[in-house]
Amino acid sequence: MKIHEYQSRQLLAAAGVPVPPAEVVETAAGAVEAHRRIGGRVVVKAQVFAGGRGKAGFVRLCADPRETEAAATFMLSNRMISPQTGPAGVAVRKLLVAAAVDVAAEYYVGMVIDRTRLCPVMMVSREGGVEIEEVAARRPEAIVKEWLHPHLGLQLYQVRRLAAAMGLDAPDRFKDCAATLTGLADVFLRHEASLAEINPLVVTADGRVLALDAKLNLDDNAVFRHPEIQALYDDSEENPAERRARAAGLSYIALDGNIGCVVNGAGLAMATMDLIKLHGGEPANFLDVGGSVTPEGAVEAFRIILADPKVRGVLVNIFGGIAKCDLIAEALISAAREVGFNVPVVVRLEGTNVQRARRLLEEARVPGLLTATDLTDAARKVCAAV
Ligand code: GDP
Ligand code: MN
User: Fold this and answer.
1) Which ligand 1 atom is at minimum distance from the Cα of 130?
2) pTM given for the model
3) Among candidate residues 100, 122, 142, the one where a domain is terminated
């Protein structure tokens, strides 16, 4: 689960990380008022989950309220497109107006779970800012790491090593740097994050250490333990179909192709998508209706998939293990009656009660429904039909 920069910086500030004063606004007029209250120069920043805002023009340094008004108007009326958003971009609903600072140097500080070592790792670099992805790809040695003991957390000797790696170990810088690193580790561990980043952490022209950006992703599997984090959830950027699928307990991911997939089991869903591609098609979605799929769940899956205007055909691939094939066949028939199949639907059923399922489908004579003998046959048929 992602939360916004303004929410992340509040959590970091509460943990002792120094951040510049800032306000969150939703209108250009609000941004102007915030600028007047903060005074001096400000930075106006779009609050969206995708990064790459700086390069996309959605982080702007504004010297006076007129510039702030123009920047805010631009951001609230244009979609932000960056390498992290996809071609359609994302709408901006909230802006952070923060006191601007004169930056002398930019650093990167981040934390993730190291899946190989099975513990959190803190990473720092002297080469922070908007090019950190390039640094990571080209010069990985410029990123210095310390692995945290899962119970002991970040130790002071590690803080010293990381501060030294950034050149922030002199007495005047160390205190703020240490507060930043320990605060970040504290927030990461306490809220069970999967990623936490301050990029850039800066030293200002007048020698202060400040976190100018904050990014926090929380582990979806742990969010239930943190009602205070759940309360921060904002689903406005989520794909509407994905939101609807989640409410129905389906795991669905929208894709760019035109063949809808209804499959039970994540592995089978992946294999189905592979086979569609092998036979020249493009899947419109990943969908795992779950091992114990119910008729209601299956009908809702059809509603979601057939509501996608890109979909030109559907492949239903169900292995009846816990779910019974005849029950799926009944769900298909009621989905056809209720939703209506406006595109060809190819069905491959195998497993428990498959004979009865095939009989039910034959007798129902659902228009648009084609049966397949096996998975390859199903993939060929749906690709040909599309
Ligand atoms: P991102 O591009 O989405 O990661 O957005 P950031 O919040 O990191 O902002 C992008 C860049 O804007 C930073 O790397 C800084 O170089 C710059 N920036 C942000 N705030 C300030 C500020 O207060 N003063 C100055 N001079 N630059 C800033
Ligand atoms: Mn950044």
Assistant:
1) 14
2) 0.79
3) 100
